[in-house]
Amino acid sequence: MAFEFDKLASIISETLGCAPDKVVREARLDEDLGADSLAALALALGPVPE
């Protein structure tokens, strides 16, 4: 089962608060999307349970 890029782009956009059209396959989290180390960690670990 292949993971759809659109779903991943939506998660990245929502987590980082950036425009969805900025999330492209060539984008780098830090330089292109403005993610800091904590945002990158949040993407890697997933949502925090409440």
Intertermini distance: 29 Å
Q: Rounded to an integer, what's the Rg over CA atoms? A: 11 Å
Helix/strand structural class: mainly alpha
Order of helices and strands: HH
Low-confidence stretches: none
pLDDT averaged residue by residue: 88
Contiguous helical run count: 2
Overall spatial form:
globular
Strand content: under 5%
Assign a percent range to the helix content: 40-55%
Reported for the largest beta sheet, the result is: none
Give the strand tally.
Answer: 0
Write up this protein.
This protein is an all-alpha fold and about 50 residues long. It is built from two helices and no strands. It has helices at about 5-15, 35-45. The radius of gyration is 11 Å and the shape is globular. It starts with a helix and ends in a 5-residue tail after the last helix. The model has no long low-confidence stretch (mean pLDDT about 90).
Fill in the keyword field for this structure.
mainly alpha; 42% helix; 50 residues
Write the layout of secondary structure elements.
Layout: H1 5-16, H2 37-45
Quick rundown:
By secondary structure, this protein is mainly α. It has helices at 5-16, 37-45.
